[in-house]
Amino acid sequence: MFENKTTGLLLVLPAAVFASVLFLLPVGILLSEGFAGSEGGFSLGAYVEFFSSELNNTVFWRSLRLGLWVMLTSAVIGYAAAFSIVQLSPKSRGRVFALIILPLMISPVARTYAWLVILGRTGLVNQVIVGLGLSEEGLQLLFTETAVFIGLLQLFLPLMIIALISSMENMPRDVVPAARVLGANWFSVFFRVILPLTREGLVVGGTLVFAGSITAYITPAILGGSKVLMLETLLYQRVTVANDYAAASVIAMILVVMSIVTNLLLKRLAKPRNRRA
Amino acid sequence: MKPSSTATGTIIGLTLVFLIGPFIVIILAALTAGNNLAFPPDGLSLKWFIKVFTVESFRISFFISMFLAVFGTLTALIVGVPAAYAIARYDIPGAGAIQLAVSSPLIVPGIIVGLALLRYLVIPTGFTIMAALFLAHAALILPYAVRVVTSSLQNLRVDVEEAALILGCSRLGSFFRVVFPNIRGGILAAFILGFVTSFNQVPVSLFLSGPGVRTLPIDMLAYMETTYDPSVAALACLLAIMSVGIVFLAERFLGFSRYV
């Protein structure tokens, strides 16, 4: 630690100015625009108007609902996957872990595009459905909430698995066998042993997945189109189609508030872990 | 008493099929000899991979994305390394607020930043879209640069710097001759992380695009809306191979995951 505070400030100044001028200032103006009345002054008119539209309400609740569903599903799959991976020998655990994080390195556009091939009218899934005689022409799978859900799940599941693996690795090794020996079935092992001991990882993974899902753009844009709008695709549409900056500002505020809440939650949870380390 | 290895094996297998399977589908779909995006592919050929290189807009947007990723990351490092040094070594007043400002690009969703820059920087001041894109990408990478370099500075003992200073080295000299060689790995890791983040970035660039100025992922999205041929699949494969290759090499020679 060096004492000279001025030098320290001078070193950090460019970064702080860069971030404030480029980020905080324009974003702040954009957010404040939502509170401007039509004749100046403060007004909540934009918010009232935003939530009085049925489409906007649908999109708002759909984003929250899909976010929750993706979070819950990834938690269920994540626990099963993380628990199985932790049982592996260190060598194969490393390999599987590398495969789990591999998708995170790849462009989300590429990752989402694959689902067009799989879920399209003549795609893989429909070939199976038609082949089995379940439907004559195949089902409309693209541009449905289900398609967006599947895309988001594939995009964010790795985050949940990583978070759960790291908290399971910190779990004392013998607790699960001990509970089994003492006669607990897998159901109570999970709810009374594993869940309480990995709660931190669950919350970290859950918030990352939830925040990622509700602020996603690419997945709803490709797999939902204009039929299944989510908050960010609605924002894009309001601006490019209707020049409606008041609505854009309201959506921006919703997104920013959700991001901040998520980050505060994560920070809170990350703290005790750092103290222990 | 352990869970049966058949059960755990099946769970891992299914998870990997869900996560990795789509890539295999898209690779095979891109290798089709037919003219439609289909799986299973209609014969095998590399023609769509070759076609990607002949699409002019892809070529232009590839270079724009490359430029943004390389120079945006370099700019973020030039601004970010001194900040990381100050955060790791000095007791700065208001450190919390400064760290919050520097990490704000991580918190504010990119689409909002892009829109805000378009409305309040590009339109009123006549800034070019390209300049705004460049600044936005640099600012977006800044938090990664600061975080990765800060953590590698925190792993470097202060004693070595103090020793250099006592032996008569100047502050700047000790940074370049003692600190820098020791955090080179961290800086390279920050560069790679920044490069991949910027190159794959969509939301920030969404509003910041104009005639002739588009990043590659945005161009792909636009192409997809009008054309349903396998060239986007081929391009997606090439990009995936590039990202995975960079990260693999970085892990191999640098132990990349230590820094991230």
Explain the overall architecture.
The complex is a heterodimer of chains A (277) and B (260). With 277 residues, chain A is mostly helical. Chain A has one domain: Orthogonal Bundle (MetI-like fold), CATH 1.10.3720. Helix content of chain A is 77%, strand content 0%. Chain A has 13 helices and no strands. Chain A starts with a helix and ends with a helix. Mean pLDDT of chain A is 88; it is low at 273-277. Chain B is mainly alpha-helical and 260 residues long. Chain B has a single domain, classed as MetI-like (MetI-like fold). In chain B, helix 7 (158-166) packs antiparallel against helix 8 (171-200). The longest helix of chain B is centred in the N-terminal third of the chain and has 34 residues, at 56-89. At the A-B interface, helix 1, helix 3, helix 4, helix 5 and helix 7 of A face helix 1, helix 3, helix 4, helix 5 and helix 6 of B.
Short account of what is shown:
The complex is a heterodimer of chains A (277) and B (260). Chain A has 277 residues and is mostly helical.
Descriptors for this entry?
heterodimer, A: 277 residues, mainly alpha, MetI-like fold, globular, B: 260 residues, 0% strand
Q: What's the CATH H-level superfamily name of chain A?
A: MetI-like
- In the CATH hierarchy, the third-tier topology of chain A is known as MetI-like fold
Shape of chain B: globular
Integer-rounded radius of gyration of chain A: 23 Å
Strand content of chain B: under 5%
Estimate percent helicity of chain B.
over 70%
Structural domain tally of chain B: 1
Please give the CATH class of chain A.
Answer: Mainly Alpha
How would you name the CATH homologous superfamily of chain B?
A: MetI-like
Number of strands of chain B: 0
Distance between the amino and carboxyl termini of chain B: 36 Å
Secondary-structure element pattern of chain B, one letter each: HHHHHHHHHHH
Count the DSSP helices of chain A: 13
| Unreliable residue runs of chain A | 273-277
Number of domains of chain A: 1
What do the pLDDT scores of chain B average to?
Answer: 88
Looking at how many chains there are and whether they match, the oligomeric state comes to: heterodimer
Please state the overall shape of chain A, judged from the principal axes of the Cα atoms.
globular
Element pattern of chain A in H and E:
HHHHHHHHHHHHH
CATH architecture of chain B: Orthogonal Bundle
